[in-house]
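Handout, section B. The chain below has 262 residues.
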Amino acid sequence: MKASLLVSAICLALQTSAFAEVSSVKTLDEPGKVIASGSVPDEASRATILARLRELYGAQNVVDRLEIGGVVPPPNWSENMAKILAPNLKQVHKGQLQVSGTQIAIKGQVANEALRQQVVSNMATSLNPTYSIDNGLVAAGGEAQSLLDKTLSNRVVEFESGSATLTASGRAILDEMAAAIKQIGSPKVQLIGHTDSQGNHQANVALSLARASTVRNYLIDKGIPVESLSASGAGPDQPVASNDTAEGRAKNRRIEFRLAGQ
């Protein structure tokens, strides 16, 4: 596993044979070894990070190469790093985690698309709204899913406010998605609607389903077989960003394209 956490001038790099690039350090040939390297602001931060890693991977599997001093962290940096280093990171393989200021980027492989979404959702709900997350995780063995993800490219299929009516930009994105679905042979695709947390929960679930159904009907009109598409609504229950900011809420109002079985 290699993860680098970069906060302003602060750098924390984690590396294991399971999570990312191969290292020249011989101990990394052993499964589960983790190297923590880079600069942290003080001894307390170093101790917090190492304690968290040792809790996750075992003390015998953590190699400490952290340096102390010369950097000024954002508020509550140590506490937020402990939240980022959560147990489900152990399910990410061949990846990298970067934190630059309050911008987080995570890459790597996970077992399925549901886990891909869940890792980032858990991270988003545990952090304060100043943090944003770029989800570069890929479902293992999922070249078709990767094509859908690259086509969507972290964009949001837009609807008119409070409705299931697509905007012009939303239709344009769906035209690209239809072409991608045809390119991979029109497999079974789950269309999952998500909303922000504003308003009534039950109404949000209904709206998310209505929007997913609108997307389904649009793709059918573009030639995708009816039996290839299903629609469901998750409402506000699976955020990928904080709902405390307008930017975060915009990211959470989305349509997820998930291959069945991923």
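Note. Confidence is low (pLDDT under 50) at residues 1-30. Compare this with the example in section A.
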